[in-house]
Design goal:
Radius of gyration: 22 Å
Helix content: 10-25%
Strand content: 35-45%
Oligomer: single chain
CATH superfamily of the largest domain: Pseudouridine synthase
CATH class of the largest domain: Alpha Beta
Shape: elongated
Number of domains: 3
């Protein structure tokens, strides 16, 4: 059982908690390709069996969210569940004003990762430091907002706006709303987050944990997307003599520079390689030689 399983994560559970539940259910090795906060819901890609070796290649894949921002509030976590640090009146904000401000956030922008993120600092996760009340300086990162549409706007002292956002991997929606609130002069926090798309994979095709519980293991296996299909964003490299791959040494190969999924002429998935200056280097070997027999 090797491949990608799409899960609709509920609120109130960590991504690691989802991994643990599925691991117990399938009795297989399980990992995920991008964290969702406990209060967030939506699409979570789980990697089953040998597919856990490719999970890291999904971190930078484009994402799409439906998210809400509440203005006139600032918290220590940049979301509505954090400790309120500042609260004011944002009654003057209008739908037109928000739509105009959106344009300033489209394209390549810089973000400072929040302290509640999983980013490493000197070998420790930022969220672990944040729990101890430690705040450290973080480097800004370049991210891209491809699309940002205002779905709805509810006026009030602390108005709430709902957005659809398509962005690059590594984008923090909470920080996006905090930065937007700062520019508007009122502060802003994320009040809900639902991930609806990762790359080409859609939330509508995901299964809930309750659905999985009610299925037999063989039926769950039918939901799993093969590793080759999961790596749709990589070019295929057909290896004429696949034994070369198992030597774990570079060999001559004509192709475009970049990561590729290595396959045999018969379509057997061998693993991930990287082409550089007409040489292919095996990076992650998934198959074993017995797979070729």
């Amino acid at each position: 059982m090797d491949g990608l399983l799409l899960i609709d994560k509920p609120s109130g559970i960590t991504s690691s908690g989802v991994v643990l539940r599925v691991k117990r259910l399938l009795k297989e090795k399980v990992g995920h390709g991008g964290t969702l906060d406990p209060n967030a819901t939506g699409l979570l890609c789980l990697f089953i069996g040998k597919a856990t070796k490719i999970a890291s290649y999904f971190y930078e894949v484009d994402k799409e969210y439906i998210a809400k921002a509440r203005f006139g509030i600032e918290t220590d976590t940049q979301d509505i569940w954090g400790k309120i640090e500042k609260k004011g009146d944002a009654l003057f904000l209008t739908k037109d004003g928000i739509e105009k401000e959106i344009q300033n956030f489209i394209g390549e922008i810089e973000q400072t990762p929040p302290m509640v993120s999983a980013v490493h600092h000197q070998g420790k996760r930022l969220y672990d430091l944040a729990r101890k009340g430690i705040v450290v300086e973080r480097r800004k990162r370049k991210i891209k907002i491809y699309e940002m549409d205002l779905i709805s706007f509810e006026e009030g002292e602390n108005p709430e706006a709902e957005f659809r956002i398509r962005c690059s991997g590594g984008t923090y929606i909470r920080t996006l709303f905090s930065d937007m609130g700062e520019v508007l002069g009122v502060g802003g926090v994320m009040s809900s987050l639902r991930r609806v798309k990762i790359g080409k994979f859609l939330l509508k095709d995901a299964k809930t944990l309750d659905e999985l519980k009610s299925k037999e293991k063989k039926e769950i296996e039918s939901f799993i997307i093969p590793i080759q299909d999961a790596l749709y964003f990589m070019e295929s490299a057909v290896i004429g003599d696949p034994i070369k791959v198992f030597y774990r040494q570079s060999f001559r190969f004509e192709g475009k520079d970049g990561f590729v999924k290595m396959e045999t002429k018969d379509g057997i998935f061998l693993g991930i390689g990287k082409i550089e200056r007409c040489f292919l280097s095996p990076i992650k070997i998934i198959a074993i030689q017995d797979d070729l027999l």
